[in-house]
Amino acid sequence: MTGLRAKQKADRNRRILEAATNLFREVGYDSARIEDIAELAEVSVGTFYNYYQNKGDILVAAVSMEVEEVLAAGKTIVDSPPETVSEALKALIGQYYDHSLVYLSKEMWRTAMAISIQQPESPFSRRYTELDGRLCDQVSTLIAKLQLRGSVMPGIDAVAAGQMFFNNLNMMFIEFVKDEAMTLDTLKDTVTRQNRPLATLISSPKIQ
């Protein structure tokens, strides 16, 4: 019985989250009403509030779901990366970017970023910062893995190098969500080109 209740609760949560993200895409985050989200999810407004206090809670849940799936997919690349630094970064960052619009639109990302900046001490902002940190750590782990394999020179600070690559991919993602006309392919090509000089500098000569 307990298992059934847990399954029903998870199903309601999934329906609310899917209804909210679909409505955010359709009418925009600001215009979406909680009553409409509840109706689309086929739950009462009271039930909605059993799961989320407001729309911001749903947005952070969507961001969390996005990043958790990206991290899981990225782990497979980190565990067995391509041989060169450039190709490994291209694979990992491409995975990040390709998944970035599965649950969130550019408008939703802009809203999430704005909330995290405007309310730095809020639970939303702390969660957003934590997720960014985990992505950054994964990039650094990739560089460390390549270093152990001999693709990166021994004296390189893998953590610092990973942070530099992450800071650039994150900055360019901000530019991407600000520009409705920019495509994912343009974003990926630009970041690959920007990463190449630093990737070459830290690569072992035998791998270049």
How would you characterize this protein structure?
Helix content is 77%, strand content 0%. With 208 residues, the protein is mainly alpha-helical. The protein folds into two domains: 1-52, Homeodomain-like (Arc Repressor Mutant, subunit A); 56-202, Tetracycline Repressor, domain 2, CATH 1.10.357.10. The mean pLDDT is 92.
Layout: helices, strands, pairs:
Elements: H1 2-27, H2 34-41, H3 45-51, H4 55-79, H5 85-99, H6 106-118, H7 123-149, H8 158-178, H9 184-202
Any descriptors?
Arc Repressor Mutant, subunit A, elongated, mainly alpha, single chain, Tetracycline Repressor, domain 2
CATH superfamily of the largest domain: Tetracycline Repressor, domain 2
Could you give the count of β-strands?
A: 0
Helix content: over 70%
Range of strand content: under 5%
CATH hierarchy class name of the largest domain:
Mainly Alpha
Q: H/E order of the elements?
A: HHHHHHHHH
Query: Alpha-carbon distance between the termini?
Result: 59 Å
Query: Over all CA atoms, what is the radius of gyration?
Result: 20 Å
How many helical stretches?
Answer: 9
Main sheet makeup: none
| CATH topology category name of the largest domain | Tetracycline Repressor, domain 2
Low-confidence stretches: none
The best one-word shape is elongated
How many independent structural domains? 2
Going by helix content, strand content and strand pairing, the class is mainly alpha
Compute the average pLDDT. 92
How does CATH name the architecture of the largest domain? Answer: Orthogonal Bundle
